[in-house]
Design brief:
Chain B: One of its GO terms (cellular component) is SMN-Sm protein complex. The complex is a heterodimer of chains A (320) and B (129). Chain A has strands at 3-4, 8-10, 17-22, 31-36, 42-45, 51-54, 62-67, 73-78, 82-87, 93-98, 103-108, 114-119, 123-128, 137-140, 146-152, 157-162, 166-171, 177-182, 187-193, 198-203, 206-211, 217-222, 227-232, 238-243, 248-252, 258-262, 269-274, 280-285, 290-294, 304-305. Chain A is mostly beta strands and 320 residues long. In chain A, the strands form seven sheets. In chain A, strands 2-29-28-27 form a four-stranded antiparallel β-sheet, with no helix packed on it. Chain A has a four-stranded antiparallel β-sheet with strand order 3-4-5-6, with no helix packed on it. Chain A is globular, with a radius of gyration of 19 Å. Chain B is α+β, with helices and mostly antiparallel strands. Chain B contains two helices and seven strands; from the N terminus they run E-E-H-H-E-E-E-E-E. Chain B has helices spanning 29-34, 44-71, and strands at residues 6-7, 9-10, 75-80, 84-93, 99-107, 110-118, 122-127. The chains are: A mainly beta (320), B alpha+beta (129). The A-B interface holds A 1-6, 8-12, 28, 42-44, 48-56, 59, 72, 89-91, 292, 294, 297-298, 303-307, 312, 316-320 and B 5-18, 22-26, 28-31, 33-35, 38, 120. Strand 30 of chain A pairs antiparallel with strand 2 (9-10) of chain B, so a sheet runs across the interface.
């Protein structure tokens, strides 16, 4: 029997959720951090959405949030002109990195020793977390606010997307732009998949996939509405996207065909990401909620329970 | 039949934030495994350090509340974010000190008879005792 997707709603934020990130898989499961305009980023258990804690300290909207692979550290980027590093186990603030303007993006290296930041002052900064007092390495070049900055190619290169409608690939050591991609519209989101070196970029109604080394286009798909974020499944068989029409779209990556669309959010979707095991994806919206969606609808996983037809006596049925 | 898909069953909803706590449960397996040194010890030395801290906190809190009482009815200068400085007559604060009720607030646009100032926007207040 075909099942209808039951998204799990994570409430708690009081303003739009603008960014979210998953950790890697740890001995305690995997975790999810959400960035919110209410200034209070939250940590949740990744497979259930259960709230674990709120990082308190920012004095403005939090625009970007990330976790390191082990989920022991978190970093956030905010409108209060700071990026902060947190202990993701205790919730304590570990470091405040002052910037000259709104910070939009933060990203750890694989070994969590360095933090990359980018924001409205158009400069990429690399902080050595072992020497927090030292001046960061700066990479200038973008002519507008940086929206997203990511480490790639074994942390030797940096990918950045800015409001100047370019995506640039930088060499960390020479601080030079190795390649530049120019677009007709502002890039709304970027995701880097290390395994396979794929870059997922969204702009306008397009979801485009690039080779992260050469920045050659692999393929592109147009959605029915303006897309704000997309994510490729770890096995690269599908991708999901969400944007202005409040819906989440699921596409077959190989054939580029739209497979499903899901309603549920009450506002535009700002961010969407697959979990590290690919079993679910999380979406953050203008409506202030995060929703968790099953990749394989009907499968028993996390809080979702596969109930065989003869056991459907209404006891567990809590469709929202 | 095609419109009659059964929704997937759910064990419960995801747990939301606790109202009075920032979370990060120190009794969780992950916390205990990764932060053994931050567990409160039962030795008397750390116990008295906690008590001393509690005493100091209580003293600071009392001082703050008495300052608010003393400020009532007085003309106060509020230094706020974005280099804003205004004068007003202080009335009261709400229970969580989220808002400050003032009257005759002098602003660049004129004098506001009654106003509420958001505490989070205020950096400092000064007044003549």
């Amino acid at each position: 029997m075909a099942m209808r997707q039951t998204p799990l709603t994570c409430s708690g934020h009081t303003r739009p959720v603008v960014d979210l990130a998953f950790s890697g898989i740890t001995p305690y499961g995997y975790f999810l951090i959400s960035a919110c305009k209410d200034g209070k980023p939250m940590l949740r258990q990744g497979d259930t959405g259960d709230w674990i804690g709120t990082f308190l300290g920012h004095k403005g909207a939090v625009w970007g949030a990330t976790l390191n692979k082990e989920a022991t550290k978190a970093a956030t980027a905010a409108a209060d002109f700071t990026a902060k590093v947190w202990d993701a186990v205790t919730g304590d603030e570990v470091l405040t990195l002052a910037h000259k303007h709104i910070v939009k993006s933060v990203n750890f290296t694989e070994d969590s020793t360095c933090l990359l930041t980018g924001g409205n002052d158009k400069v990429l900064r690399i902080y050595d977390l072992g020497k927090p007092e030292a001046e960061p390495l700066e990479i200038a070049g973008h002519t507008s606010a940086i929206k997203k900055a990511l480490w790639c190619n074994n942390d030797q290169q940096i990918l950045s997307a800015a409001d100047d409608r370019t995506v640039r690939l930088w060499d960390k050591n020479t601080k030079e732009a190795v390649k530049t991609l120019a677009f007709d519209a502002s890039v709304s989101s970027m995701e880097y998949i290390p395994d396979g070196e794929i870059l997922v970029i969204t702009y306008g109604r397009t979801i485009a996939f690039y080779n992260a080394n050469s920045l050659d286009l692999i393929k592109a798909v147009d959605a029915p509405a303006s897309i704000h974020s997309a994510s490729l499944h770890p096995e690269k068989d599908f991708f999901v996207a969400g944007g202005d029409d409040f819906k989440l779209y699921k596409y077959d990556y190989t054939t580029k065909e739209e497979m499903e669309s899901y309603k549920g959010h009450f506002g535009p979707i700002h961010c969407v990401r697959f979990s590290p095991d690919g079993e679910l994806y999380a979406s953050g919206s203008e409506d202030g909620t995060l929703r968790l969606w099953q990749t394989a609808v009907g499968k028993t996983y996390g809080l979702w329970k596969c109930v065989l037809p003869e056991n459907l006596d209404g006891k567990y049925n809590t469709a929202i | 039949m095609s419109g009659m898909k059964t929704p997937v069953s759910v064990l419960r909803l995801p747990r939301g934030p606790e109202p009075n706590s920032r979370g990060f449960d120190p009794t969780s397996p992950r916390f205990i495994a990764l932060c053994p040194t931050t567990l409160p010890s039962s030795s008397s030395s750390s116990g008295s350090a906690d008590e001393e801290e509690q005493r100091l906190r209580a003293e600071l809190r009392e001082r703050f509340l008495r300052t608010l009482l003393l400020m009532t009815g007085k003309r106060v200068r509020f230094d706020m974010h974005e280099h804003v400085r205004v004068h007003a007559r202080f009335g009261a604060s709400d229970i969580d000190v989220l808002n400050l009720q003032v009257c005759d607030l002098e602003t660049p646009l004129g004098v506001q008879r009654e106003a509420l100032l958001r505490s989070q926007d205020v950096i400092a207040c000064s007044f003549e005792v």
